[in-house]
Amino acid sequence: MSPDNLHITLRFLGEVDDTRVAELGGVLDEAAAGLPGFDLGIRGLGAFPTLTRPRVIWAGVGEGAGALRTLAGRLESALARVGVPPEDRPFSGHVTLGRIREPQRDPGLAAMLASGAARHFGTLSVERVCLMRSDLSPRGARYTLVTAAALEAP
Predict the structure, then answer these.
(1) pLDDT tens digits, residue range 52-102?
(2) Residue 122, by phi and psi: left (phi above 0), alpha (psi -120 to 50) or beta?
(3) Does a structural domain hold residue 88?
(4) What residues make up the domain containing 56?
(5) CATH code for the domain in which residue 85 is found
(6) For 98-114, what is each residue's pLDDT tens digit?
(7) Which of 12, 65, 126, 134 is the most buried (most CB within 10 A)?
(8) CA–CA separation, 18 vs 75, rounded Å?
(9) Does the global pTM surpass 0.85?
(10) What residues contact residue 59 under an 8 Å CB cut-off, 6+ apart?
């Protein structure tokens, strides 16, 4: 995966009509209002649904995870006010590193992921929340910024 594609998804919306972009920009503004920016530690490796049969390989969040959950919760509440149905599973902050097209048991991969469970990969400054468009192709997704809302200076 290209480093430019690395991100943390606060909420996947699926197909969004272009006529709702301004409304969703307001939702981002509402979610970000009054929240200071924060640092987020990227820590640990894992996989969904399990290490032994992964479909998605991810790096987790450590320091700053509470601030990230707060931002995700505020976004979820603001989306509900404009009629977006609630997410059916709890928020789990992570950076998707890759996807496996044909999952199968791979003890070597599971051991490698388990050995990276406590590894610290770095820290990033979270300064804004963005609405992104993803265009899928056989070579992966391409992401385009649609609109963003700034968090307050820390």
Answers:
(1) 889 999 999 999 999 999 999 999 999 999 999 999 999 999 999 988 888
(2) left
(3) yes
(4) 3-149
(5) 3.90.1140.10
(6) 888 888 888 999 999 99
(7) 126
(8) 19
(9) yes
(10) 42, 43, 44, 45, 46, 94, 95, 97, 121
d(CA 79, CA 29): 11
**Quick one: which of 16, 1, 4 has its CA closest to 143?**
4
Active site residues: 7, 94
Rounded CA separation 142/154 (Å): 31
CB 64 within 8 A of CB 139: no
Q: Is residue 131 part of a domain?
A: yes
Radius of gyration of the chain (CA): 16
Asked if the structure places residue 154 within a domain, the reply is no
103-112 contacts at long range (C-beta below 8 A, 24 or more positions apart): 103/53, 103/54, 103/55, 104/53, 105/52, 105/53, 106/54, 107/52, 109/54, 110/47, 110/51, 110/52, 110/54, 112/45
In a domain, 63, yes or no: yes
Strand-pair category, 128-137 with 38-48:
unpaired
Q: How many structural domains compose the chain?
A: 1
**Distance (Å, whole) CA 125 – CA 11:** 19
Beta pairing class for 120-126 and 140-150: unpaired
